[in-house]
Amino acid sequence: MRKLKMIIPYILIVIFTPIYLILDKMFFVKIFGCGCVPIAQTNMFNIPFNANNLKFWVFFIFSIIMLLLQLHFTKNIDNKAIRIVLCVTTFILNIIIAFWVYNATMWQ
Description:
Elements: H1 2-32, H2 51-73, H3 80-104
Helix pairs in contact: 1-2, 1-3, 2-3
């Protein structure tokens, strides 16, 4: 069970991404606008913030949360090198996937 906990921060982004993308298409683009043409951009709040900006911040915060979750799950590991490797790789993997999703699904 302890090893399973340490894998969760690596795989939650795979579950989170499709759910977020569905919400993005159904709600967030309607609320914040797509960011397609910045000059003509309007949204419900009439602010210069669009669904692309929201996606960036949501995935960045998600990556931070996964790092904190991994820190919590690995707090009982005595070997600090292993703990550091697990935490750093969790953060890097989540950031890489978040960056890829952001670029691949950007509203243009």
